[in-house]
Structure formats: C-alpha cells, structure tokens
Specification:
2 domains, DUF4270 domain-containing protein, elongated, 434 residues, twelve-stranded antiparallel sheet, DUF4270, 28 strands, mainly beta
C-alpha cells in the first residue's frame, strides 16, 4: 500500500516499514506502520485492521411494509433461517358501477400480474389459497407492518395448484367461486352498490395465502385485480365483457412471518441480539421479516493510546458474503446502512463528508473462489461518532436492498471467522507532532 502526499509540489512516495504498538485498554494490537516520516515532517501513517468489531444478528419487532412496490406470496423452509411465509391482504373496488341490466355473469378469476421477482425454488408446484377478508382493512392512518393482520373467512373462495413461470408469463389466473362473484355482480347490476364507500363497507377484500409446503416466494404487481367475466344475452355475437375489481394499491400489503425453530436463529427473538460468536461466526439478513445485522466498534478510543496527535485519514469496513447453493445467484450490488441508538431506533442515514448516502458496494467478486465482499466507507461516521456526545450509543444496522419488499436472505462472516474472510475495519491513521 502506498500513501501519497504533495509537497512543494513534489510527490513523495512513502516507504513501508512496520511497528508494534500495545494498547493498554483493549486487545487490539499488531498495528503495521505503512509510512515513514517525509522530509522535514514528523508525520507517520499507519494501516490498522485489528480494531475490535462486534457483529450480531438483530430482529426488529415489526417492519413497515406500507408503500412496498411489490406483493409477495409464497413460503419455503430454509436450513439456515427456518420457515418463511408471505401472504397478501388486498382491499378491492370496482372500476365502474354500471352494468347492463341484461348482463349475465360467466366466470370470476383473480388476476395476479407477475413483476419478475422469485426467490428460492420456484421449479416445483406451488399452491395459493384465496379467502375473503371479513373486517375493514384500515390502520387508522398509520403504516401497515409485516405483522399486521385482519380476520378472514374460514373457507377458501379459490385454490390454485400451479408451476410458476414468472419470467415467461405475464400473469397468474386463479378461478374464484362463482357464487362469491355473482353476489358482487348482481348488487352492482341492480344498483344496490353505486360507489366505492358503499362497496368497501360490504366487501373488504381478499387474502391470498400460500400452502405451507410451498418452496418459493413470487412477486406480483399491485396493479392486480379480481375480474368478472360477463356477457349480454340480448346482443348477437357479442364479445365477452369484463369488470375489474382493482386492488386498492395504497392499502394492499404483505404479511410476512418466520419461524426460526431448529435453525441457527432459534434463540433470536424480537428486539434481541444474537452475537456472531453464538451463531457459528456468522450474521444474518432477511428481507421482509426484519432480520438485520448490527455492527459496533467498541474500542475506537484505543487510537488515543498512540503517542502524539493523530487523525483518521480513511476508514472502510470489509464484509464477506457466505455463498450458499441455490441462494442469491445474483446478490445485491449494494447493502443499506443506517445508524441506530441503544434502543434500536433508527436515528439517521449513513452519510459521507459530501452528505451523500453511504452504501456497502461490492469490492471483490470471484466466481472461481466463491468470494463476494463488500466495502463500506466509514470515515465520516467514525469522526461524527467520536465528536457527538451520544456517539458511544451509536451502532450500524445493515440490511439488503428492497428490505420491505423481498425475502432475500444473506449470511455474512463475523469478526472471528477463520481465514481471510473475517469482518474487519481497515483504517489509514495519520500521526503527527509525536
């Protein structure tokens, strides 16, 4: 590694040398000096990658799913995460309240428009069940959460056993009970229901639930609908007509749950932490369920034990992804980071000195050696943490893209992982006026 500095205005290369420093207040040691003093200066530059990093897996008690751009339906069992399930609550309303008095209902179908998302094994047959919602889908102006639920009917009004082709087909059709559709159709035709308020007072919507034996999760557009197919007998050779009961996009949401029994996350409960040291030197992230990774640097004050005035010139967190068969064949190019306090409340975004949002970007990728690592620039965060009166109560929380609209799962190597894939903080530290 080289450190360059411009003086008068000659570029002087700094030679590598090594030094050993012992910190009395921490276990951190073995600090390698990568620069010597240059002409007429006492400045030295050190490369440090042994400061303590503490990582753990954390589970939020709930996760806001309001405004999610995707409906997720499916279930599967994962050897590392346990059982994951996502079902959808979707209020519906008609696109029109005018039907010809001579019209007759032919059939009813739920039309779910694929958006291309799929996770886990979707090569096997999947089963979706459709139920009628029995109470108003309303959260009193607050967000819907992955734990929000409403009462539904006991008997299904539709069942679909199918093999999904989310990249080949544009939609999935599920036949719905004729009597359920006819009740809606006749009330609109007879003008018993003439506006959305009256309609949603009587028909709350539909709940789409996967079978427990499913093996994957599929993504669908909010622009889906319950479709009534009808014809007018008085018309000769008339084309079949349709009436769409559209999903209320603002109030449709994903109810996502998990059961970690029998997995490494068995002891993880809501708002609790599971140290990487207690989970086989690993940390976890899972979209939709609120499982994230928390990271802390508890011994930054150890830098003060170096004699002389010093400053952090650069800081990067290196994180290595554990690759798994049939999981995340195309991992996210970036990871999301936020700052949380001791109560696990998010208090802000992670920024750099230009006030640009910081993400973890892929730093190294090797298919041959199954290596995928991310690098996260942290200089501004560490400087702010050191200067803020409450900085000692700051921590980083890490999760993937589309955290509330996917079930993507990640496993990362912890700080005590064997080999060269341990989670570590790499600092370039300048010491002057020794």
């Amino acid at each position: 590694m080289k450190f360059h500095i411009q003086r008068n205005p000659i570029i002087i290369s700094i030679l590598f040398i090594s030094a050993f420093l012992l910190f009395s207040c921490s276990e951190d040691s073995d600090i390698s000096e990568v620069a010597d003093n240059w002409i007429n200066s006492n400045t030295k530059v050190y490369f440090i990658d042994t400061l303590t990093v503490n990582s753990s897996t954390f589970k939020f008690d709930s996760l806001s799913v309001s405004g999610s751009n995707r409906l997720l339906i499916g279930a599967y069992t994962d050897e590392d995460f346990g059982y994951i399930e996502s079902k959808v609550f979707a209020p519906i309303y008609p696109s029109t309240y005018t039907i010809d008095s001579e019209a007759e209902l032919d059939s009813v179908a739920l039309i779910l428009n694929y958006d291309g998302y799929a996770y886990n094994d979707t090569l096997q047959n999947q089963v979706f069940n459709v139920y009628e919602i029995l109470e108003k889908v309303d959260n009193d102006g607050e967000d819907f959460y992955n734990t929000t639920s409403f009462k539904v009917a006991e008997n299904a009004i539709g069942v679909k056993n199918f093999k999904p082709y989310p990249t080949l087909n544009d939609s999935l059709h599920i036949t719905i009970d004729y009597n359920f559709g006819e009740g809606i159709f006749e009330k609109i035709k007879n003008k018993d229901l003439t506006n959305t308020e009256d309609f949603m007072r009587e028909y709350r919507g539909i709940n789409i639930v996967p079978d427990r034996e499913n093996t994957g999760v599929l993504g669908f557009s909010r622009e889906s609908s319950l479709r009534l197919y009808y014809s007018i007998s008085a018309e000769v050779d008339s084309e079949e007509k349709t009436l769409d009961l559209n999903f209320n996009e603002s109030d449709s949401f994903n109810h996502i749950s998990s059961n970690n029994a029998g997995s490494l996350l068995d002891s993880l409960s809501q708002n609790s932490y599971l140290s990487s040291l207690d989970s086989d030197n690993q940390t976890f992230i899972q979209g939709g369920t609120g499982i994230a990774t928390r990271i802390d640097f508890p011994n930054m004050e150890a830098l003060n034990n170096i004699q002389g005035e010093g400053t952090i010139m650069d800081a990067n967190l290196k994180i290595y992804l554990k690759t798994r068969d049939n999981k995340l064949s195309s991992p996210s190019n970036s990871l999301q980071f936020y700052i949380i306090n001791q109560h696990s409340d998010i208090i802000g975004n992670l920024y750099d000195y230009n006030q640009a949002t910081v993400t973890g970007e892929i730093h190294q990728e090797s298919q041959e050696f199954n290596i995928i690592s991310y690098s996260v620039p942290l200089k501004y965060y560490l400087d702010s943490k050191a200067s803020d009166p409450n900085g000692n109560n700051w921590y980083l929380i890490m999760y993937g893209q589309d955290f509330s609209s996917s079930v993507d799962s990640y496993i990362f190597y912890g700080e005590k992982a064997p080999g060269d894939r341990r989670m570590k903080l790499e600092l370039t530290y300048a010491l002057y006026d020794e």
